[in-house]
């Protein structure tokens, strides 16, 4: 069994992690310990598993909405104190994400088992580990195949569903080649492409350079279907997520049409940092497979 590593943090580092834990708890991500008189569902029950999933989604959001915070967990080369946000101010200090994940899985703190297990699953998702790699009650880190880890991340979508659009021309070194796309222009383009009734709002993303725009759809099954349809449109036109990641290396001729400079894809948990503060605060994380399962079950009963 790998050793849980700890070290004595500096005063400044300790203040930073304590403040982060306070922000997490203030937003209601961590539940209060179960009060005396309340019963905790058995760990092998469906109810207990549902509670873990709920905590899992909340912690996935916490770990992804701030890029600096995410780097603190994924940066294996840097040693920085990490505290357990479930334990809060009473947390021990952990030297790396593995130590924290092992603590979260093994902790038997009264009333906090659900939150610890949710945090463990969220950390595994972030690091690409298998949360089910358990032998004789002990979890050990096992790296998932890249395709499986990616599939797990792509399943967790921002909700209400969003499609994130990048203006590829903003990153060009020649300012004369940049095309600023207005909200009104994008809305008109979407209407012409057959998208309208399923859209709740179109707004700017986080960067102040106007390089990101966000199309927010209604938080319904049909809204998700419309968001996926727009996602597929960009993917089929070779203007999806993968193409955008390569756009800065592309030395082709300058494009001047709106449809040529925009790259779009369905927003997942890892994209939360691209949203503006208001949109992010009103968003949660959901499983796309779970949403489709509910829709299929509803159809089966009709």
Automatic annotation (TrEMBL):
Residues 154-273 form the XS domain. The gene is LOC107961758. InterPro entries: XS_domain, XS_domain_sf. One of its GO terms (biological process) is regulatory ncRNA-mediated gene silencing. This is XS domain-containing protein. Gene3D superfamilies: XS domain. Coiled coil: none annotated. It holds the Pfam family XS. It comes from Gossypium hirsutum.
């Amino acid at each position: 069994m790998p050793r849980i590593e700890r070290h004595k943090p500096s005063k400044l580092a300790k203040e930073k992690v304590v403040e982060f834990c306070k922000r997490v708890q203030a937003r209601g991500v961590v539940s209060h310990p179960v009060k005396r008189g309340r019963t905790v569902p058995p760990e092998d029950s469906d109810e207990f598993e549902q509670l873990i999933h709920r905590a899992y989604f909340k912690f996935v959001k916490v770990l992804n909405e701030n890029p600096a915070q995410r780097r603190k967990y994924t940066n294996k080369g840097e040693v920085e104190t990490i505290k357990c946000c479930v334990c809060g101010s009473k947390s021990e200090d952990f030297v790396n994400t593995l130590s924290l994940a092992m603590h979260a899985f093994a902790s038997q703190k009264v009333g906090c088992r659900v939150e610890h297990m949710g945090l463990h699953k969220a950390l595994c998702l972030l690091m690409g580990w298998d949360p089910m790699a358990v032998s004789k009650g002990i979890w050990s880190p096992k790296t998932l195949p890249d395709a499986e880890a990616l599939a797990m991340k792509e399943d967790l979508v921002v909700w209400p569903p969003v499609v994130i659009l990048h203006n590829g021309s903003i990153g060009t070194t020649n300012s004369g080649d940049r095309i600023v796309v207005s909200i009104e222009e994008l809305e008109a383009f979407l209407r012409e492409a057959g998208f309208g009734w399923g859209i709740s709002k179109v707004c700017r993303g986080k960067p102040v350079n106007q390089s990101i725009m966000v199309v927010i759809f209604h938080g319904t099954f049909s809204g998700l279907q419309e968001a996926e349809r727009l996602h597929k449109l960009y993917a089929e036109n070779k203007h999806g997520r993968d193409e955008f990641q390569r756009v800065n290396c592309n030395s082709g001729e300058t494009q001047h049409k709106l449809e040529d400079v925009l790259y779009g894809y369905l927003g997942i948990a890892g994209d939360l940092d691209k949203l503006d503060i208001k949109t992010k605060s009103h968003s949660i994380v959901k499983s796309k497979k779970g949403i489709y399962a509910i829709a299929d079950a509803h159809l089966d009963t009709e």
